[in-house]
Amino acid sequence: MTVQPTNLAGLDLRAEIDRLRKERNAVILAHYYQKPELQDLADFVGDSLELSRKAAETDAEVIAFCGVKFMADTAKILSPDKIVVLPDMEAGCSLEDSCPPEKFAAFRKAHPDHIALTYINCSTEVKALSDVIVTSSSAETILQQIPESQPIIFGPDRHLGGYLNRKFKRDMLLWPGVCIVHEAFSETELLKLRAQHPDAPIAAHPECPPHIVDHADYVGSTSGILQFAKTMPGDTLIVATEPHIIHQMERAIPEKTFIGAPGADGNCNCNICPYMALNTMEKLYVALRDLEPRIEIDEPLRLAAKKSLDKMLEMASGTIGKGDLGAR
Length: 328
Ligand code: 13P
Ligand code: SF4
Prior knowledge:
Rossmann fold, four-stranded parallel sheet, 15 helices, disordered C terminus, binds 1,3-dihydroxyacetonephosphate
């Protein structure tokens, strides 16, 4: 359900959000792909792993999640006693959509000797059908703890799974899902851009297809890419992930230049995540005011999904991801 914010004209939304955040004892969590104004008012900005950790440990009564639904669901799974609101319930994910639980259950049944290592970008039902969840910043650490002799199903992102297979010489069976955002980068346009900036390294998210990842000097999660931007030599970086992360780079390292990798038309606008973009200041204000739209999960399903998430948090300890504090 999309809440239509009405009659908000004349409101100082930032001041109202700050007032409600205090009144509700709420914490506002934001992913790096959110609009700059949402990143800037958040109590915490991070990647999927950092946001899960934050959701599990906060003592706020309300979590307002500026991200997509699987992220808010994860917060509710880990913090069932808290109210979790998502500004727009339509903020989904193409990876989650690609993996219906019934089909995933049938796939698992067809491969009874395989364990399911599953990317966090999936539904609560698919998490409940999985053995261990991974994020892009924890996947490598976790995979290396699983014996090479153990057959594995990896879903739903075939590009992240394929990247892990190539890097660690594994043979995981891949679910055929993709992120529509990372799928849209153009190799031809990327090479044209690199020719214009021959000294600039390329950083890519592992959700990108191999024809993009193969040109990258660094491959990693959003927090990994941000860390690379801070530590890389040189002053220009080509960024092959959702371009809103550049906001954090420009805040952290204003003296460097960050260029979004282009899509097929040479214009990187097609790489803005349409789901993340549904969240706005207006909808966040309404969510804090009404405590709706609210995430609700049946307890047996939550407990089943929590097992694979707990396993991730246990196996991922030590993985990068401390997140960045949003400006207050
Ligand atoms: P990370 O922030 O964990 O790298 O994930 C990226 C993503 O696709 C979020 O939807
Ligand atoms: Fe899903 Fe891709 Fe958007 Fe992330 S960027 S939420 S993986 S569609």
